[in-house]
Amino acid sequence: MKNLFLYTVLLISGLFFVTSCEKEEIGGTATESMAGEWYVTGVAVDADGNIVYSDDDLFGLGHFHLDTYNTSANNTTEMWIDDNENFWDFKAKISVDLNTMTFQASEAQNEYYDMQVTVSDGKIILGAATTPSGMPADSIVFLVNFSDDTYPEDFGFDSYRIAGFRYTGLTGDE
């Protein structure tokens, strides 16, 4: 009887051990192919896309971090774009097309303060950028306008073009 009990305990313990070693596959988000942290710069461009003011002329920001990430709805048609209060203090939901890796928003409500954000011609191109360290990375580029911004009218440009690469975390790419 002791042996039967011992074998039963060993069998049950063995089953727990085997099942506890199985790793569950962690799923991604609906927009994970377009989500990321980006290292970008901003320039002022005219309606034809010609640079009117370079980054140094604008606000002296240099490179800054920008994030794109899924919404709580976790669907394939929208995501957040967030400058983390580094450029114009904007965070807005944008429409995305995962097949073409494009995005846009028309007068989306800013979450940091009351104003609207318009994003146009947004696209992510996989492997199209070269980081300062010479490594390939994904590229992001888009035009953005803000409802409370008088600079375009005051200084004669149309939009801000934000462009850069997916952040690598390597010090050579900063």
UniProtKB/TrEMBL annotation:
InterPro entries referenced in this protein's UniProt entry, alphabetically: Lipid-bd_put (IPR024404), Lipid-bd_sf (IPR038668)
Gene3D superfamilies the record matches: 2.40.128.220
PROSITE patterns tied to this protein: PROKAR_LIPOPROTEIN
Pfam family, one: Lipid_bd
Protein name per UniProt: Uncharacterized protein
Phylogenetic lineage: Bacteria, Pseudomonadati, Bacteroidota, Bacteroidia, Marinilabiliales
